[in-house]
Amino acid sequence: MIDDENMPDLARRLRDRNSFAWNFDPDVSDVATWQMETRDAVRRALDIGTTATPSASVLAEWDDGGLSGQHLRIGFSNGETADAYWLRPQTRGPAPGILLLHDHGSSFSIGRQKLIRRPDEEHDAAVQSADWARRFYGGRHLGNALAHRGYSVLCVDALGWGGRAGTGYEGQQALAANLMQFGQSLAGVVLREDLEALELLRHLDGIDPERVASFGFSMGGARAWQLAALSSGAKACVAAGWMGTLSGLMQSGSNQLRGQSAFYLLHPAIAGRIDYPHLAALAAPKPALFLSGRDDRHFPETVATDAFRQMRGIWDATRASDALRTRMVPGGHVFEVQPQEDAIDWLDRVL
Q1: Are the beta carbons of 250 and 257 closer than 8 angstroms?
Q2: How far apart are CA 323 and CA 283, in angstroms?
Q3: Is residue 1's pLDDT more than 50?
Q4: Which residue of 206, 249, 253, 315 could cross-link 284, Cys pair, CB 3.0 to 4.6 Å?
Q5: pLDDT tens digits, residue range 123-138?
Q6: Is 243:256 a contact under the CB 8 Å cutoff?
Q7: Which residues of 171-183 are buried (b: 16+ CB within 10 A; e: fewer)?
Q8: DSSP per residue, 125-151
Q9: Is the pLDDT of residue 211 over 60?
Q10: Can you tell me the distance from the alpha carbon of 23 to that of 145, in angstroms, rounded to the nearest whole number?
Q11: How far is it, in rounded angstroms, from Cα 303 to Cα 312?
Q12: pLDDT, average across residues 257-264
């Protein structure tokens, strides 16, 4: 259990007195005006201008039981390169696309392999991939399951994972510190690259750009709802295992009170201005599915349900109540097969 003994009284006072000036207030603004102005303000603060479409080259290809896979090397506008897997069904006609976003999980040696199984994967990565699927995804690779259901799936290594891995938590802390020297954050770098990866997916052959969704669990869930909130290219999102209010998450036992994984989720330029459920609700009236485990120690049920309640008010204000689905599911900080299947069924309906 993480305690809050390292949180100074100053942080407690900031937490308890903060009013989130950019949160939606129906007594001050109509929802459409608030969304337009707030989305623009968030993008300016995070220095997100026009999103570039990154380059992509094919490093390898494979077939796997009716699926076609490619190992891509992606070149982002910031000069970074990343490995990615693109898995798609062998069917004619345009397919809906999924940008599948991997979790954090305190393990950095694999990224894309957490979610997509490649039959000829290098041995050590294959072993880690299978173990990760067993521990967090009910023993299966979510990307392969989505592709078998007719979706074209792209999964990219985020900075610090897979082909971009450093030296574990020590390397993560160093990444964060080095970027801070230049006014950048890990969360901001990942978000910008995710936005570009989404644009790449929309332009890949055989993709219907009007049927593209973001999908992720844990840190991947947070990445998914940020894309839906800030990009018109994401037409829907599934976010499992990451939603709460800031005040609810800044409590004893929460990852918010330490460095490490928190660096991938904190945007200093907008911190204290808009709370998580309100940032996510910039996606309304898009279809969005949020799931949280009843026994998730990172996102207690009371904290998640409070966030869901606030999001519900904003989706209601857009007159799209049915577009938002929020569910507490059995279990802890895992994404089991049945909730995965329910999420894919929901995607089938909305895409």
Answers
A1: yes
A2: 10
A3: no
A4: 315
A5: 999 999 999 999 999 9
A6: no
A7: ebbebbeebeeee
A8: HHHHHHHHHHHHSTTS-HHHHHHHTT-
A9: yes
A10: 37
A11: 14
A12: 74
Token code pair at residue 115: 């979610």
Secondary structure class of 40 (helix, strand, coil): helix
Close Cβ partners of 19 (under 8 Å, ≥ 6 residues apart) = none
Residue bearing tokens 């995710």: 194
**What single letter denotes the amino acid at residue 311?**
M
Identity of the residue numbered 201: L
> Dihedral through CA 192, CA 195, CA 197, CA 201, nearest 10?
-170
Cβ contact 244:264 at 8 Å: no
> Is-cis flag, bond preceding 330, omega within 30?
no
Backbone angles phi, psi at 165, to 5 degrees: -70, 150
Tell me which residue has tokens 């949280």.
292
The answer to whether 286 and 234 have CB atoms below 8 angstroms apart is yes
Token pair recorded at residue 160: 């610090």
Res. 2: pLDDT tops 50: no
Q: Which helix (H) or strand (E) holds 220?
A: helix 219-230
Q: Please state the rounded mean pLDDT for residues 25-46.
A: 96
